[in-house]
Amino acid sequence: MKNEIIRIGHGSGAGLTNELIKEVFVKNFKLQSLEDGVEIENRTVVSTDAHVVNPLFFPGGDIGKLAISGTVNDVSMKGAIPKYILITYIIEEGFEISELKKITNSVQKEAEKANVKIIAGDTKVVEKGKADGLYLTTTGIGYLPKGVNLNSKKIKNGNKILINGTLGDHTISIINAREKMELSPAPKSDCASLNELVQVMLKNGNIKFLRDITRGGLATILNEVANDTQLGIIIDEENIPIKENVNAVSELLGLDPLYLANEGKLVSFIDGDENKLIEEMKKNEFGKDSAIIGKVTDEVKGVYIRTSIGGLRPLIMQDSDPLPRIC
Amino acid sequence: MNTKNFRNPQLINNLVEKIKQYKEPISLMEVCGSHTMAIGKWGIRNLLPNNIKLISGPGCPVCVTPMSIIDALLDLKDVTIAIFGDLMRVPGENGSLELAKAKGLDVKIVYSPIDALKLAEKKETVFVGIGFETTIPGIAYTIKQAYEKNIKNFSVLTSLKTVPPALKLLSSDEDINLDGYILPGHVSVIIGKDAYNFLPKDYNIGGVVTGFEPADILSAIARMIQQVKNNDPKIENEYSRIVTNKGNITAQKIINEVLEPTDGIFRGIGIIPDSELKIREKYSAFDAEKKYNIKIEYKEDKSGCRCGDVLKGNIIPPTCPLFGEICTPSNPIGPCMVSSEGSCSAYYKYERIM
């Protein structure tokens, strides 16, 4: 690896992260899969996640809600029903206990909403200046219903690609809050637990594969899938739901919503007719803007996007986080 | 203004059909990096016939910033270095700011020069003021603010470039064969359409000032074709919704008050007369070059990087032997790959055949 020290880009979820995981972790741990959630035994699925968001409170959520929904979603993407959460707090010296209470209250509220129980945890305090206020890590445990087996290997030519709503909301909400951009109305994070929506999808559609669209954004996931399966993908820009304010801020800063993190969005590869599936998804509060955005095809190699004016261009895997531009 | 009208597929289709009627080879340079990105992002090259060649120009601020600026910054001690995001991964001779940050250098990304001035409330801050006319007024204004508020621990390391001198150089270079320019939109908001009148007058070449929506770019191409067809080079304004003939006089005044022209170093190209703006004597307390005794020099790039040829439109990025193999956005060799507006980055992102 070049430059031999950790750079911030190694945490981007994009190409540099993949390189690091392969180079350091896969080699040592002899990992079989790089997915967030994994099935162990007796149809049990586990997943673990660390949360380091700045600021801790943002429109649409806070680090507590995020910690639960993030892990609930990682377990759910295997098709499993999440049941239990373990949570660890790493708290910086000087942190207000009233804030800790607020965050913990929202941990509990989101757990109730997602119907998961918090069963154990750990607390550590570190010296001032060492943890950005508060870091949380969560581990989730869930169970796979009978007959459910989601895997990228099941994706075939002709499968359609579906997402459950608008892209980029979370990142733009965080940038707005962190940089005090004072956009009005403030863009809201989409932070949400998608376990119920996933079960609706499994009941009403022929689902091959699911992923939550977090760091790296939709573009990174599609490239990973195209890489794993050696299949081609074309998505239609026109059909991808993006909120107007998210689009405007992204254009202003030189960011592309297709590469931005979400906290309540998933992408799914489906076979067969989608009408009933989408109709049922739209009845769920987190599926209202569900849409087919593309297809798996042998017309191309890799991932391409048909722009809204009819141009066709590659949608590549980026190496690192996008940087805001000068003008 | 609703930009959706400028993305209307029917309108786009009509423009493309009109452009397709012209069958002769034609080479147009889009001077501005944001145009290069827009062309890539919308897949415009893919819509155009092969006889229309779009060449990317030198209008990417990060790309033309001399390497020695990065090296000078890496030597600064006990200061906050405030930068625009694009600069983070630009390689100098001794590594990038991103790498230095990972080793402990205090580097902060700001979205506006005024944010950098706020950082100075806490700690001695050096803002890296790079850019063309679009960003220059904000930087000049910030320096003036620092002067008026008598803020002692703030300075600006400048590499501020102006577009017209670069166009003069390109237009007089006999190796570069262009039929016309697609002229920058936002730069022209500041300097005005008339700032390019020398192009048809002195060099017999025309240009169209335009915006960044697909219909803007396509209608600029259509207008340039018309000029070439009629052998009637002139400066046209397709972006009249925000660009005037004289530009933004208030912005020009503040630039003039704080800054003065000098010869400038364009990385990869060399020294272009009167192409740079430096801080005037009155404001020299805020000039980081003087405060820290920094000397910005032109250095030959020894990496084999052909950014210079890319910036002059002599080659397209994939022609460079480093492109995509050794030189990628996460490990860029040259600045054209690192800036989101750089031609190489645009080609890597949008035009690379997989």
Structure, explained:
The complex is a heterodimer of chains A (327) and B (354). With 327 residues, chain A is of the alpha+beta class. Chain A folds into two domains: 35-143, 60s Ribosomal Protein L30, Chain: A; 152-314, PurM-like C-terminal domain (Phosphoribosyl-aminoimidazole Synthetase, Chain A, domain 2, Alpha-Beta Complex), CATH 3.90.650.10. In chain A, 29% of the residues lie in helices and 25% in strands. Chain A has eight helices and 14 strands. Chain A has helices at residues 15-29, 63-76, 97-113, 169-178, 195-204, 217-229, 244-253, 275-281, and strands spanning 37-39, 44-51, 57-58, 61-62, 81-92, 117-126, 134-143, 160-163, 206-212, 232-236, 266-271, 291-297, 303-306, 312-314. Chain A is globular, with a radius of gyration of 19 Å. In chain A, 48% of the residues are buried. The mean pLDDT of chain A is 93. In chain B, α1 packs parallel to α12 (214-229), α2 packs parallel to α17 (343-351) and α8 (136-148) crosses α13 (249-258). The longest helix of chain B has 16 residues, at 214-229. The model of chain B has no long low-confidence stretch (mean pLDDT 92). The chains are: A alpha+beta (327), B alpha/beta (354). Chain A binds chain B through residues 2-3, 5-9, 15-16, 179, 181, 253-254, 256, 301-302, 305-314, 316, 318-320, 322-327, and chain B through 7, 9, 12-13, 34, 37, 40-47, 61-62, 84-86, 88-89, 95, 98-99, 101-103, 109, 111, 130-132, 134-135, 186, 214, 328-331, 339-341, 348-354.
List keywords for this structure.
heterodimer; A: 327 residues; alpha+beta; five-stranded mixed sheet; B: 354 residues; alpha/beta; six-stranded mixed sheet; five-stranded parallel sheet; 11 strands; 19% strand
In which range does the helix fraction of chain B lie?
25-40%
Q: In CATH terms, what is the fold-level topology of the largest domain in chain B?
A: Rossmann fold
| Strand content bin of chain B | 15-25%
Kindly give the count of domains of chain A.
2
How many helical elements of chain B? 17
Number of strands of chain B: 11
> Which architecture name of the largest domain in chain B does CATH use?
3-Layer(aba) Sandwich
Total tally of structural domains of chain B: 2
Q: Helical stretch count of chain A? A: 8
pLDDT averaged residue by residue of chain B: 92
- How is the biggest beta sheet of chain A arranged? 7 strands, mixed
Q: CATH class of the largest domain in chain B, anyone?
A: Alpha Beta
> In oligomeric terms, what are we looking at?
heterodimer
Provide the β-strand percentage band of chain A.
25-35%
Q: N-to-C terminal Cα separation of chain B, in Å?
A: 37 Å
Main structural class of chain A = alpha+beta
Task: Outline the low-pLDDT stretches of chain A.
Answer: none
Rg value of chain A: 19 Å
Give the C-level CATH assignment of the largest domain in chain A. Answer: Alpha Beta
**Fourth CATH level, the homologous superfamily of the largest domain in chain A:** PurM-like C-terminal domain
**Biggest sheet of chain A, strands in spatial order?**
9-11-8-12-10-13-14
